[in-house]
Structures are given as structure tokens and as C-alpha cells.
Amino acid sequence: MYVQLRETADELAGVLWREHTVYRERGGGVVIRGEHVRRWISLAPTGGKDRALLRAGRILDGGTTAPARTEVVVDLTAGTPELAAVCRRLLADVAAAAEPAPGPSRAGRPGKPGKPGKPGKQEKPGRAARAARPGRRPRRERHTSPGSWFVLLCVAAVLGAWLYSLFGRYPY
Asked: How far out from the chain centre does Cα 121 lie?
């Protein structure tokens, strides 16, 4: 079944996107990633002969995949153009769901006065974006900083002084 899914995924990827990555997922399915459109499609076995579960979703800012927005069971004996049409419909549903709905402006809300946005201000990148920055080496092993050692020495000194005050003055 995996070979059939892989061949179908390769054909679909070539029809849908010029730039794509096809890889195997843990459950035995195949994923097609379109990084330039920030979408993914997954073909997974359903247990039936010549049938597959087709799912589609978004690729988030850090490169991780969001959970599937839409899914449908398809017949793999259908031709590539029919499967591509189903994929395009699912991708259109994902794109429609990904667009934020226009909400009321800050000025229209009662209560707190609206703050004007700062034009040059940028949000801080999330953890995934910081981890992927080039030029940053990952730590090889954990280490204790000098400040932590100083705190440990102070705690040991206080503990030693207390024990000395209890047992050090009077010999038994």
C-alpha cells in the first residue's frame, strides 16, 4: 500500500506544485509539503483496498504542520486529475479557514482607550524561530553557571554555621 501511496503522492505533487517535498509519515502515510504556499497534503491508508484518507492543512511560521483542517476518503483508482481536483478543493477550504475574519477595530471597542500602533515595532520571534537561526550553536551539555555555584556555597556555609552552633561549642 505504501508503494501505491508514494507513487500517487509523487504524481499529485507534480501536478499541484512545482516546489514540493514528499516524505513518509509515522503512520505509514505520505505527506506532500508545499513550503512556498505554506500548505501540506497527507495520503494515509484506511484499511480498504485502493482507498486512502486525504487530509490537508497549513504550515505554521516555525515550519511545523498545523493539524488537518479538512479530510476526505478518496479512491486511488481514480485518475490523477480527479485526485488533484479533490486536493485543490481541500486546499481552498484550508486557505479560506486560514484567513482571519475582519473584526472590530480598537477604536470601536468600549472600555479601554485604543493605543496607536508603533510603526517600527516588530514582535519577538517565537521559540521555534529562534532555535532555527543560523550561527547559533546548540549546547553540548548542561552546565552550572558561576552564580549557581556561589548560591550553593552560601547555602553550604549557612548550613555549616548552623551545625557548628549546635554541635561545635560543647564537646560530648
From this structure: 25
